[in-house]
């Protein structure tokens, strides 16, 4: 017993001391590493990790604003908003993105091209930022996604407002359409403050008034669970809807114009002569603006852009045409004001006019005989105006053309307006390096040759004749107001200038326009109504020069344009109408019947009010 005690008493643990010391250091090292890691995570990376943790629990959901409504002059809605549903995926919440997207495609019956990503890549390093993978999915697909949400972690559905163009192609060139903002637009001053996922106006009023229509986005802060399901709303900032816009357009009259114009291509504009207000404006062919709401397919876009009839072109403001005989009123006004003729000045027309070794012909082969200015306008005698053109000269005609509003944009509230072309001696020398020829003045005097005008320029010039000499800026917008009806901006009629023509001479021109419709042999006789209240002028704009013996059976693209401008009634006009039928032939036989239907339709509407 004592022997065992001695062994215990005299036991030396030295052989374990090194091992114990090593274990102590290892424990201390482990604690040091643990404490260092905790310090690094909580102090150095604390803010970042807290933010990531918060993002994993709290999400910020943008609320896109409703674009403002666009209404006609009576308050009827032309452009509204409707709900569309987009699918987005949050990469961090999805874990295995490829599996989630394959499951989504299988459930919805989508092919490999149906799912797409926009704006940012799924591997962009922003794992908590939703990435849109499908848009405008429809309510049937929405139900599938919501029902299978447990199998689609990270997939969220956003309600997105989209435009609804109630009248479709009938008003496409006025209202325009919207689309995703482009990279080039984001870099421009006009879109300062816009973001890469904004929807902006691309055409028409939608583009012209985008800053008023777009509204301000809001946001919602929500708490979600591990599966991404919303548990609670923590905070919300309401979006602000865009301003509403009232136009001067009358939707009922617009429909009348659309139905009346059954030709291949052309334009119709209806204007109030006393205010310059555009009451209707159509273009054919047109396009369906609702196709652009959530992205038009490449195939449809190609079909629109390669169509030889150019359905995207707003012919009313960007079409440039020789004015033909409608230009004779300007030449007559200039000759009267310059004292070169009086209203009873007579000129003999035998059907030809000789300028040097060249012979210019009147449209009437046998000629009109000896006629004064009134009959020359009524019967549209070319020879009479050939003489006036020689008296005036090209530069004097250009001077009056500018005062009538030709050769520069009118300022109408539509993008893409063209200036037209009013030639001068200086212009030709600069453009072609050649001097002006007298024969070119002869062609110019009847609206042929180099001269080009836009339909809106031509109509407002005739409106100035109709109202006694006031040239108005074309007015398309009536006012802009808030959703509560408070006026933000008003657009009253805007006078640009008075015509340099006396009231006496304007009355001479108006009476001649009345005669062109209501007197025997008038070129606008189809417009004659029982009330005998229409004043008008037809025009045939030559596309290519044809010899006298050439056949009328020529390709469509080489046929003459048919023009007509009229206003009603004679004494106190309330409506002015312009019709251009591209490659339609003669204004009196093609454009006049269209204008007649529009005038009758307008007064039928007024009787119903």
Brief synopsis:
By secondary structure, this protein is of the alpha+beta class. The protein is built from 22 helices and 23 strands.
Overall shape: it is elongated
Q: Strand portion, in percent? A: 15-25%
Q: Radius of gyration from the CA trace?
A: 37 Å
| Top CATH class of the largest domain | Alpha Beta
Low-confidence stretches: none
Residues in helix, %: 25-40%
The CATH architecture of the largest domain is: 3-Layer(aba) Sandwich
Q: Layout of SSEs?
A:
Elements: H1 2-9, H2 14-44, H3 46-57, E1 58-63, E2 70-71, E3 77-89, H4 91-94, H5 97-108, E4 131-134, H6 138-147, E5 155-165, H7 172-175, E6 178-180, H8 183-186, E7 199-201, H9 204-208, H10 210-213, E8 218-224, E9 230-237, E10 244-247, H11 251-260, E11 266-271, E12 278-284, H12 298-305, H13 315-318, H14 328-337, E13 347-349, E14 352-355, E15 358-361, E16 369-371, H15 373-378, H16 382-392, H17 394-403, H18 425-432, H19 438-444, H20 455-466, E17 470-472, E18 477-481, E19 487-490, E20 495-498, H21 503-518, E21 535-541, E22 561-568, E23 575-581, H22 587-608
Parallel strand pairs: 2-10
Antiparallel strand pairs: 1-8, 2-3, 3-4, 3-5, 6-7, 8-9, 10-18, 11-12, 11-23, 13-16, 14-15, 17-20, 18-19, 21-22, 22-23
